[in-house]
Amino acid sequence: MNIKFFFQFVQLSIFIIIYSCSQENLNKTAVPQAVTGLCSPIQLSSEKVNKIDLSDYFLEKYEIDSVYFENEILDLDSVYIELYPDKLNTFLSTLTVYINNITYHLLVKAPDVQETTISFETNADDVKIKGEFTNWVSMHMQQVGDTYKFTKYLNPAVYQFCFVVDGKEQLDDHYEHVPNGLGGKNCKISVPSKRTDNPSLSFEFNEVGDVVLKPSEGDVNLLVFYENQLIQQFDSTEKGVIPQIPQYSNQMDLSYLRAWAHSKTGYSSEVLIPFINGKAVQDPFILPRHAKHKMTLYNVFMDRFYDGDTTNQPFPLDSVLPKAQYFGGDLKGLTHQITNGYFDSLAINSIWISPLVDQAKGAWGLWKTPRSKFSAYHGYWPTTFTQINPAFGTKNDFKASISAAHQKNMNVLLDVVANHIHIDHSLYKSNPEYFTSLYLPDGTMNTEKWDEHRLTTWFDVHMPSFNHELEKVRELLSDSLMNLIHEYQFDGFRHDATKHVPSSFWKLLTSKIKNQYQHKTNRDFFQIGETYGSHKLVGSYVNSGQLDAQFDFNVYDAIMKILCDGASFNVFVDVIDKSIATYGDHHLMGNITGNQDKGRSISYFGGALKRDEDAKLAGWTRIIGYGDEEMAFKKMTMMHVLNSTIPGIPVIFYGDEIGMPGGNDPDCRRMMKFQNLTQKEQELKAEVSHLLKFRNSSMALIYGTMSWHEIAEHRLVYSRKYANEVVTVYLNKSNSNQEFEHDGLKFVLFPYTYKIFKDNS
After folding, report:
1. In this structure, are strands 411-417 and 549-550 parallel, antiparallel, or unpaired?
2. 287, 274 contact by CB (below 8 A)
3. What b/e string do you get for 164-202 counting C-beta neighbours within 10 Å, with b at 16 or more?
4. What is the pLDDT of residue 27?
5. How many Cβ atoms sit within 10 Å of the Cβ of residue 282?
6. DSSP state of 517
7. In 391-502, where does DSSP find H-type helix?
8. Residues 618, 619, 625, 630: what is their CA dihedral angle, to the nearest 10 degrees?
């Protein structure tokens, strides 16, 4: 016998014995401790070797004994292992990690990519390509005669792109043209999936409340996880499978069962079922506030929300026009609205507060027409890491707001900036070497190079960007954010400018949150980021080792295209499918109504703002209202319907619940309106409240799987399903009445209206 084979055989035999013993321990009463939260699946890429960092999943204090995958024990280099996609025989596999007599399992997904070549024929000398698959950065194409080719492995999805010929964007009639949302068009290409026939998986509850898994017929297998442990594997010869839930589940106030059906041709959507103290949840009202999928998030833009303390008003600045001055909103005002029940009335259970740390004094930046500088009312020019801006209140005021929210069973998220500081920050003055250079090697300024130099660019000349490649910088920043968590005990971060910060920082911060806070306090913590870009770029920051979620600007853009540009609902469906494929069936991405860097959605919907105009200039030079008021409110309602019924977390930018109009920054940041609402504002607020209350009452909208039933240019029908509960959404965005049918009931939807049915079979 070969010596190497002998030792591998002995090693594998020992592991199997250990693994078998550990499987017997799954039903013991001890709760597994080496992991915090649910481990996201490992999505392998098309690279020959995928290097996996196990510290993304497991706490630092636990030493990994061994790792087992595809019938062999893997070499463990510190916390890194190597996986080879070409060795996989199935779409789904499990990675087994053995720690302190306990076995943990990570789901592994094989790469579903296709080698895709895009060609362009021309006799031009300089031809490049840019698109969603390049993060809209121009890339060179390979030239063969008069043909230019670009080859890349792509995930199944629909991608937009264009060519850059001699410095000018150009389309090719060999590819379908679609609106780009900016008044122009892009080319489109569809990449098919390798999965040819996906099995299905549903579930129900029996008379005693047990989960019964029901896979589709055929040669199908089940993988059933409880938290981060594979508890059972089944073939589908049985009509229904009741998973054996571990005994330790009764010690956990919130835990999850996850299951997939898979075959040689594909795999199902994920089934995700929450458990409370060992019992599967059927009633959403018993879910605790830290159940992340139940979050309904509201952005409080502090200075422009509510003035509760008139004694903390900053002096107006002579060189700043009124729109860019401080307006007086503060923490006492926020506490007032919390205790007064404003968020209760909207069914909001989570608040995202704009940055609170102290800011640059005086006037900075410059808008040339009309000429105006800006105050730091927005909070994104920090001069300290932890001190509260006195314009917003004190440390105690912030603690009072958090306490009031927690008493109302609400989460609080704090907006923080890890990308940059203001030049008046003491750290920039004492340690300029901690920051990237304002100038590129060619002598040009490295400002606003969002894509070309996204990890080093400055937002403006007074906003130096951190050099996160320096370990001392990463440690300093992450420690400062940990100090905020320990000091104020809030529930999560909203991270500004996420894509301009490398993954190494987010990994470090997340590791500290897990090890120094979550594990020690047994409290959950939610992190959501802000990244404009492709699904691939956005998704590169969303996994167990980094952030829980990001805002899904691609969904926002799709909604704007279908409601403003007349695009087909197909555009929306393509984006939702891509989001699910990238982030998971039960992702936590934020479905936004707008944000502080965009013109108000309702002004676009009514035509007061044009999609291809400079919305910042418009906000400075004219009064932006609704345009067609009737249509504006109808479309705004439809946006709220979509955001509250698709997978992900609905996120309301303050004022969008009543349809506040406006151009881009600073016009989108008008003072919040609480009194003297018009009839249409009242009606929209009531509709938003109804939608969010309905969402909070529906397990299907919180944890359900997604199905499309009708996809047309102006008609859309889809459903969400959890056990026997099915929520079906019907939408009509045409200018004429449309007839629909639900379970034999025929009904008519007027232009830009909707109807939702909730059924329990």
Report:
1. unpaired
2. yes
3. bbeeeeebbeebeebbbbeeebbbbbebeeeeeebbebb
4. 58
5. 15
6. I
7. 395-407, 426-430, 471-488
8. 60
For residue 666, whether the previous peptide bond is cis, meaning omega lies within 30 degrees of 0, is: yes
* pLDDT the model gives residue 7: 45
Beta strands in 590-691 (DSSP E): 590-592, 649-653
Whether the pTM exceeds 0.85: the reply is yes
Provide φ and ψ at 352, rounded to 5°: -105, 115
Distances, alpha carbon 731 to alpha carbons 26, 47, 320, 666, in Å: 46, 42, 45, 33
Contact 351, 343 (CB under 8 A): yes
Q: How many angstroms separate the first and last alpha carbons of the chain?
A: 61
Run of H or E residues at 170: strand 168-170
- Let me know if 321 is exposed, middle or buried by CB neighbors in 10 A (0-12, 13-18, 19+): middle
394 is written with which tokens? 């004190």
CA dihedral over 53, 57, 59, 62, signed as positive or negative: negative
By residue count, the chain amounts to 761
CB-neighbour burial class of residue 520 (10 A; exposed 0-12, middle 13-18, buried 19+):
exposed
Task: Give me the residues paired with residue 164 across strands.
Answer: 128, 169
Domains and CATH numbers, the chain: 3-111+197-282 (no CATH), 114-191 (2.60.40.10), 294-426+479-671 (3.20.20.80)
Residue numbers in the chain where pLDDT is lower than 50:
1, 4-10, 12, 14, 17-19, 21-22
**Rounded CA gap, 246 and 249, in Å?**
6
- 3-state class (DSSP) for residue 231: strand
Q: For residue 541, what pLDDT is reported?
A: 98
Query: Could you give the CA distance from residue 58 to residue 79 in angstroms, rounded to a whole number?
Result: 9
Query: Sheet of 102-109: strands edge to edge?
Result: 42-43, 102-109, 92-99, 66-69, 72-73
> What per-residue confidence (pLDDT) applies to 233?
87
Write down the pLDDT at residue 398.
Answer: 98
Retrieve residue 433's tokens. Answer: 């070497």
Strand bridging mode 102-109 / 42-43? parallel
| pLDDT score for 698 | 98
List C-alpha distances in Å: 79 to 53, 62, 64, 103.
6, 11, 8, 16
Return the DSSP state at 293.
G
